[in-house]
Amino acid sequence: MPATQTAYRTLKVSPQPGGFAAEVTGVDLSRPLDPAVLAEVKDAFARHAVLAFPGQPLTLDQLEAFTLQIGPFGDDPYVAPMEGHPNVLEVRREPDEKVTPFGGNWHSDWSFQSQPPAATILRSEIIPPVGGDTLYCDAAAAYDALSDEMKARLAPLKAIHSASRAYGPNSAYSRELSLRAMPIIVSPEAEKTFVHPLVRTHPVSGRKALFISPVYTVGIEGMAPNDADPLLGELYKHLVQDRFVYRHQWQAGMLVMWDNRCTMHNALGGYDGHRRVMHRTTVAGETPV
Ligand code: SIN
FRET label pair with 4: which of 148, 173, 174, 277, CA 20 to 30 Å apart? Predict the structure, then answer.
């Protein structure tokens, strides 16, 4: 996707070099958006997959109202929501926490669901003075860059997704519950698996993207682990090359919306001794095809 400025009537959309991720100004997300403005936001989202809106100090009610303009809420199974806000999660890390940040490995949100969320919306409340960046990987560009032979090999494959590594009874989070400020829910339900196409097609842009992640993809249907694991490992190495990754630096009161259908993300640490607080919603998605 070219990094050129598309002509918008109201928004100023400034893409990163390469066109993956863009900063958006010229809009106040705290109020209901005029349909034409909302259409521009959705257009920019389909083009750039990660949109960062600086200077949007929304209340929780406003965050919910903005989310509902993008689409209905998704279902957030393994983190207890904020009191009085059943669709908002607080992503919080306290100054004395030593464990990996929540979301601190490459993943696409809740890809283990039958209909994983189309989008995640994260609004920063307290940002540490150092660290706490979020990496985003362009899984559509990564797909495009594969050889024709690899594309043909992947075309019929289905990946197996599960929340077990993160939220199952033997997961990393299960061993660290008392060390975290976040109300993470560990459950045997997390052992369930869902199968999705390894390459999915974006319902709006029509682009194909790799739809796998080291956190939630636990195998490939019909393939022995000895064959699936090296293939997945090769694809992860390919996906997270610098040329496909955008590193997002937060400011307080910034809202970022990302497309889980064509990206992975990874929350970085580097801010021990400081608090980081974000508020997060998800937008329901469709069955991946
Ligand atoms: C997440 O994976 O939702 C967390 C992202 C972040 O805190 O930057």
Answer: 148
